[in-house]
Amino acid sequence: MSFPVRAITLDLDDTLWPFAPIAERIDRVLHEWLLEHSPATAAMYPVEAMRRLRERVFHDNPHLHHDLSALRRLALREALETSGADPALLEPAYEAFYAARNQVQCYPDTLDALARIAARVPVAAVTNGNADLRRIGLAHLFAFQLGAREHGAAKPAASIFHAACARLGCDHDQVLHVGDHPEMDVAGAARAGLRSCWINRTGARWEHPELRPDLEFSTLTALADWLETRAVPAAPQCEPAL
Q1: Would you say which domain of life the source belongs to (predicted)?
Q2: What pTM was computed for the model?
């Protein structure tokens, strides 16, 4: 399939890097930090207990599902208060978590493929997560990063895709959204009127009942190849909105 692509919106977690190792490191680093700075909290909330607390806070606060940082702070605040810890530890504890959250190990193809893609068309990160491309060191390859927290709604809401298109200065059907999640990325983008690309690194079967992706690749390298050989637009790129 070939169609004009003037810009790309790109998911982050499990598209550029695997999230599972990050989640494991976050739990370990935060617990070690609490052992040093608030032993009572660490004793009351070992890793599994802290995980259950986060899950309950997520369940109890659906109005904050677009803001994972706020939910993380709520969980930390409750853990500190319940264990009788100094509430002033909240922000240092959050910073310990956030530093670990931004220690990512990209998939082997990511850096080269992303550079190739960014050389062809503007790339914007559109993410429900709270990774920081500046801390990670990849911000130079992106036109901007639009997070669910900043926007006020999370994928698959059409509004976050439309906001990214507006900032890129592109019509919806000129933008290709690329991500790993069948519903959040592929179906969400398609319903919003964007083209969609499923990065299927695990070889899973497509089982979404409603929609199919315009493109499917197992790596970002394959997407970069496609852009270079079959999808290079003849018209100029979109004009970013001021």
Answers
A1: Bacteria
A2: 0.92
Element (H, E) at 49: helix 47-60
| Percent of the chain with pLDDT strictly greater than 90 | 91
SS3 80: helix
Matching residue, tokens 């607390």: 53
Span 124-140, pLDDT tens digits? 999 999 999 999 999 99
Q: Which fold has domain 7-17+105-229?
A: Rossmann fold (3.40.50)
Distance CA 181, CA 127 (A): 11
Query: Which residues of the chain, if any, have pLDDT below 50?
Result: 231-235, 242
Listing DSSP states for 157-213 in one string gives -HHHHHHHHHHHT--GGGEEEEES-IIIIIIHHHHTT-EEEEE-TT-PPP--SS---
Q: Structure tokens of 9?
A: 């919106």
